[in-house]
């Protein structure tokens, strides 16, 4: 079988174009490629011809050789690879990048661990088996937005969903199974996002949760949630367009593919943009946005054609359309349940200067994928999951980050520990001790120039934004003459002037969320603007100038005369805004946000760490147009929102009182069908939930005795005893064992309400399935679900919540 027979000509052409475009960067690389065997050389040419420029600059040749060599091995030896088209092999087996993760060799390591385990299996069976292996290696843990390498997730045993999915995709690709990460950039029904995995076999794409094995494909805790999404997408890095895919557009180097129809009921929305004279506007940017975390977040960015139109297949709910061109913008909130087309006049939007309210409708769940495993399959899978958890916990217990052994030396131990303390939690897992040592030694010369707080945070610290930690101080020192360095120290703003004069952007060849490291940017002289800012800070710190990216707006700053000074002209923060909280306690990116208009688009400020003081928040800001959003997320996923856009003049001092929309009880209720499940009676007999919930409203409480959240709801029930007495027989307390009945608070509550029903459960599948089905956190107990006389959920809550008993009584009385 000739290696890449159908694709080799286009690969050679694309690679030749790259050599002409980047002769300096590719010269040494091309020399190494010429020394490789023919098939491996062609694989390397494909990787380099399609990767972002930042990948060319950030990582050494040898890392990609691991991917290419293993890909060629699979092409020659894997029966799976023989079954697939070349474009799938290239993009979803050979390719090194999945999304925005750090790149490190992993495929050979994973394959050696997996090959015996999946020997003799078909592709689908092998894919499901690999996910059990993935669960043995890693599980979910919330972390920061930097995406660790799959090999890091494998070693440390955890990652957020974006990391679990890149790890699982890497494992599948290592075995020769085409796989990709799919992503809901923001949910419509709750403030979150999610990523999972699709794998290809038998001519079809299937999905599964990453490190969340199921006995059958096309099932995951997110099956119903995904049917409420307004967009689910994947990425494609090839130069050639994919076949049989719905292309949304491009995001630099990546092509964005719409996968929503595999998960939800959909509709094609067409946006027509016209100018004030009614003529179509071409080249306008159309942001399709979701109100999530109390900000309008773009889930897709489109561009209008010559006819002024842009379109996308989306879900059935509210979407905010923001159109801009040449700094002018217009907006509209569209309900796609009733509209397929919307016309927007691009004439500029004046600040309202007063609060306006609006409703955001989340799609109802309409699952496309309804297959369920048999009881036997579920039982076997549960046993395997228990075993996988044991294996993983043993592995995690033995994991020790390398820096603890190699960087935390006795010499300057206190300062070394201070450095580790200012790094992120994730850095303290995967930081290379050699990189840390290089930064530590290079920065010591400036130790006495600042207080320890300023020195450690803004000179010694190698972490600037969410870039890959790398050594850069030596490269920076060698890149400038002594005269240049002294000039930069005298006038730090000159550093950024030099950057703007010596670096260029190739945004069409980049991924905006993948940063070029400082040393790589200096070498390639190509990087995106966010990487320019990182480079400024790196050069400044290398030269002993304390510097940072402002935590609120990301602007470049350096330390001078006891304060941080902005680098860029026009970023003077001499206007003042005071927000007045009123009666409510506000949480940033939960029920409010503040954004500033920048070249036709609103950019949210980062105010999560800014305190309220005596009911007020004081902000020093640039002049400009601002948008204040407040939101009340209802249990059914809809949002009651308010918006205020206003002008903050130069030098102004303005007060704004926050406003919040309250909801009626009827707005709080849901209507969600629950799949059949069972509980156990006191004798261990199975009792189906359907008959239990038949008739009147019922309330089911999964209680975790002796824990504060459960104690709280039990105390609330007792405080409202007289009102709950008529409803005792509609209350179901569900516990793990009879031992729970000895708990003092639970016993006291049962004495107060003696006719409450008692049932038993393992708290495994039911709690997880019902919690997710009702869109509450299944990891927080107690789980409380109210049904409406059938196996149909109308209200749910989980964890610690004040006033739950009152809410339950109000709903029972409706």
Automatic annotation (TrEMBL):
SMART domains (alphabetical): TGc
Segments forming a coiled coil: none
Ranges of residues in domain Transglutaminase-like: 153-212
Entry protein name: Transglutaminase
Species per Swiss-Prot/TrEMBL record: Candidatus Limivivens merdigallinarum
InterPro entries the UniProt entry points to: Papain-like_cys_pep_sf (IPR038765), Transglutaminase-like (IPR002931)
SUPFAM superfamilies per the UniProt record, alphabetical: Cysteine proteinases
PANTHER family named among the record's database cross-references: CARBOHYDRATE-BINDING DOMAIN-CONTAINING PROTEIN, SIMILAR TO POLYHYDROXYALKANOATE DEPOLYMERASE
């Amino acid at each position: 079988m000739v290696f890449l027979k159908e694709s080799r000509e286009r690969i050679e052409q694309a690679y030749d174009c790259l050599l002409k475009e980047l002769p300096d960067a590719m010269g040494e690389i091309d020399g190494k490629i010429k020394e490789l065997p023919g098939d491996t050389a062609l694989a390397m040419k494909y990787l380099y011809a399609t990767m972002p420029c930042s990948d060319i600059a950030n990582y050494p040749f040898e890392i990609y050789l691991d991917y290419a060599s293993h890909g060629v091995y699979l092409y020659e030896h894997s029966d799976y690879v023989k079954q697939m088209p070349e474009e799938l092999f290239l993009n979803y087996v050979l390719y090194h990048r999945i999304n925005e993760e750090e790149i490190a060799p992993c495929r050979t390591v994973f394959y050696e661990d997996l090959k015996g385990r999946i020997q003799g299996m078909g592709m689908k069976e092998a894919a499901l088996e690999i996910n059990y292996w993935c669960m043995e290696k890693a599980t979910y843990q919330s972390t920061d937005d930097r995406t660790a390498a799959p090999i890091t997730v494998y070693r440390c045993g955890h990652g957020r969903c974006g990391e679990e999915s890149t790890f699982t995709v890497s494992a599948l690709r290592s075995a020769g199974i085409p796989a990709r990460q799919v992503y809901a950039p923001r949910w419509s029904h709750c403030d979150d996002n999610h990523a999972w995995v699709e794998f290809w076999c038998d001519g079809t794409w299937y999905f599964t949760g990453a490190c969340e094995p199921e006995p059958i494909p096309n099932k995951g805790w997110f099956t119903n949630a995904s049917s409420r999404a307004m967009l689910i997408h994947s990425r494609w890095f090839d130069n050639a367009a994919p076949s049989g895919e719905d292309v949304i557009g491009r995001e630099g180097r990546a092509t964005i593919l719409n996968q929503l129809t595999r998960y939800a009921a959909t509709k094609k929305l067409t946006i027509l943009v016209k100018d004030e004279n009614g003529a179509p506007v071409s080249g306008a940017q159309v942001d399709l946005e979701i109100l999530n975390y109390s900000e309008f977040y773009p889930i897709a960015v489109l561009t209008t054609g010559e006819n002024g139109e842009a379109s996308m297949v989306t879900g059935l709910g509210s979407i905010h359309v923001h159109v801009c061109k040449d700094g002018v913008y217009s907006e509209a909130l569209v309900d796609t349940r009733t509209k397929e087309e919307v016309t927007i006049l691009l004439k500029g939007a004046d600040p309202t200067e007063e609060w306006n309210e609006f409703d955001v409708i989340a799609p109802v769940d309409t699952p496309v994928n309804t297959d369920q495993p048999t009881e036997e399959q579920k039982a076997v899978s549960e046993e395997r999951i228990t075993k996988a958890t044991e294996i993983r916990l043993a592995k995690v217990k033995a994991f020790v980050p390398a820096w603890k052994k190699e960087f935390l030396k006795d010499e300057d131990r206190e300062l070394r520990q201070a450095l580790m303390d200012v790094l992120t939690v994730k850095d303290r897992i995967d930081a290379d001790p050699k990189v840390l040592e290089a930064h530590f030694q290079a920065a010591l010369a400036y130790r006495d120039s600042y207080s320890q707080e300023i020195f450690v945070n803004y000179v010694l610290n190698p972490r600037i934004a969410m870039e890959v930690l790398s050594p850069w101080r030596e490269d920076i020192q060698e890149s400038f003459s002594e005269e240049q360095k002294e000039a930069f120290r005298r006038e730090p703003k000159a550093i950024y002037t030099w950057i703007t004069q010596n670096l260029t952007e190739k945004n069409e060849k980049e991924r905006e969320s993948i940063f070029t490291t400082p040393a790589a940017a200096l070498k390639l002289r190509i990087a995106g603007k966010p990487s320019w800012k990182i480079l400024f800070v790196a050069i400044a710190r290398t030269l002993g100038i304390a510097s940072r990216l402002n935590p609120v707006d990301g602007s470049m700053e350096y330390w001078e005369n006891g304060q941080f000074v902005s680098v860029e002209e026009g970023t003077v923060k001499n206007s003042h805004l005071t927000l007045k909280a009123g009666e409510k306690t506000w949480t940033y990116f939960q029920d409010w946000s503040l954004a500033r208009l920048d070249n036709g688009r609103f950019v949210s400020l980062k105010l999560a760490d800014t305190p309220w003081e005596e009911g007020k928040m004081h902000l020093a800001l640039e002049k400009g147009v601002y948008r204040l959003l407040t939101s009340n997320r209802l249990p059914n996923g809809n949002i009651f929102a308010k918006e205020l856009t206003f002008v903050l003049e130069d030098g102004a001092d303005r007060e704004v009182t926050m406003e919040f929309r309250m909801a009626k009880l009827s707005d709080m209720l849901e209507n969600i069908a629950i799949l059949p499940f069972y509980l156990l009676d006191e004798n261990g007999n199975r009792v189906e939930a359907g008959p239990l919930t038949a008739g009147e409203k019922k309330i089911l409480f999964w209680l975790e005795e002796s824990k504060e959240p459960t104690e709280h709801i039990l105390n609330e029930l007792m405080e409202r005893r007289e009102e709950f007495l008529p409803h005792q027989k509609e209350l179901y307390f569900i516990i793990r064992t009879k031992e729970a009945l000895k708990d003092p608070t639970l016993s006291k509550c049962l004495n107060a309400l003696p006719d409450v029903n008692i049932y038993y459960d393992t708290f495994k599948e039911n709690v997880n399935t019902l919690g997710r089905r009702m869109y509450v956190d299944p990891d927080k107990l107690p789980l409380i679900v109210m049904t409406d006389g059938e196996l149909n959920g109308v209200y749910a809550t989980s964890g610690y919540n004040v006033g739950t008993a009152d809410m339950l009584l109000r709903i029972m009385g409706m």
